[in-house]
Amino acid sequence: MYYPNLRVKAGELKALSHAPDEWQDKIHPIWNVEFLASFEKAIPAVASTWPDGSIMDLSRFHLKRVSAHIQQTIVQHGLRLAIDPFEISDLHSSVIAAFEANPIFRVAFNDDVSIFDDTAFDELETILSPYADVDNTLLLIDIGEADETMVSVSTNIARVIEKFHDLGFSNIVFSSGAFPTTLQNIVGDEEIPRLDKELYDNVTNSLTFDLHYGDYGTLSPLWDSGETRRSGHIAIKYTLDGHWLVLRQKGKNTQAIMELAEFLILHPDYRGSAFSWADKNWHNKTLTPPQAGPGNSTGHVAEFMNHHFAQVLFKG
């Protein structure tokens, strides 16, 4: 199973709306919103786009601040919710039964796994032990940003995850992200290592049991809309086995966008038009006459993410 961490934004929703039917039982999105006020529109948008398997992540807010109405609306739309285990007592009484039918806990390692010393783990064990050895309990282990330092301590991370497994948790998702927050220094083509994938591989190679894979796609886990910068450049973010291929050039007009699509389909690592909806769309832009328009920022994000989903599902 694949558990991508996604924003509830038009591009990500569009990427999934173009997913073939056979992806439905393979992708379980973990949906994040930036602001509490965004839940009102986010919940029905998710439910109409990907109703089966979607998880609304409440762990990024203090659960006391998430109203009973929001919690109830998530459940009423048939979606699951993920919470911080330390805040389970703040679940509203009206959703406890639904949560306990499909309990999902997100444990964030933040920047340093050394915070999980024996005392910290004992506290978690006390909270989580009633949910251990329960088949439908899902544990989301989120590293945040995967960098060279995190890769170098992958065996330490594996030991912590092994502790959770020894408690009785068999369904564990391991998530991290490594796409940079900005591409402002890239012009032309550049390969960016998928350190999140490398970290996952190193951790799983140190374990005797399987982990589900999670990531942040072509978005940094440190992404902040308040820091988004406009640029006069256009880019394609193209996920491959061990790296992202980034094609970026100046200009955001139709000609620049079509030229970049041409660069992609001529690149030796292009997967071919049959690989995904996005790959077909890029190919169609290069036909004479074009069979697809240049698109806008929403469409471009949809292309990046749709191709990324296909890459993870079929090639890792």
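[next item in queue]
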Amino acid sequence: MNISVKSFLTGKNLIQYLTNAPSKKRIILLDIDMIPMNGLSVAKYIRNTLNDYSSEIIFVTGTNGYERDLFGVRPSGFIPKPVDYNYLSNTLSNVYNRINAEISYFHYSQHGIKKSIRLDDIIYFENMNRKIEVVTTNQTDWFYQKMSTLSKQLSEHSQFIVCHRSFLINSMKVVRKNGSKLIMSDNKVIPISRKKLKSVEKSLLNFL
């Protein structure tokens, strides 16, 4: 897993970055006593306004009495002040290992070479004659497989649905539904077949 570290002087700066940044798994350390916008307010914005429930939030705090308010933002840990760096390191390692264990991959083969892509990165699959094209947030690749076989392979991952005989989409990458069309996060417009319309609408209710 590739890791990058970014720091922000204020909660507002962090929110501005997250608003424009692509969705991904993150560990966010928040000082609960920072000003002018405290860590709890930033966490509530991340969860309730940005609808980000996948990032792991860890609070750095020397203050008691926030327990009830913190429950609503599902924190992954607390670092007491003054910061003990061994405690900090252990907390980050535990959260990192949990994230790493949760990540699922899609595995496929291309000319005998085994490849894998994070499921969370996949936007959609498109059936192009005998070839399946997979479009992700950062690349496009292909492999040979029947769409029916691919659908069965992904059946345990409910976010993936067949909306058309030529498309299997990641519901979490749908920006909006416009009639019988889906607008994806990469601006691709994907049709919904008439016989799939009701089942697609029902499935999307869990993700939109």
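[queue empty]
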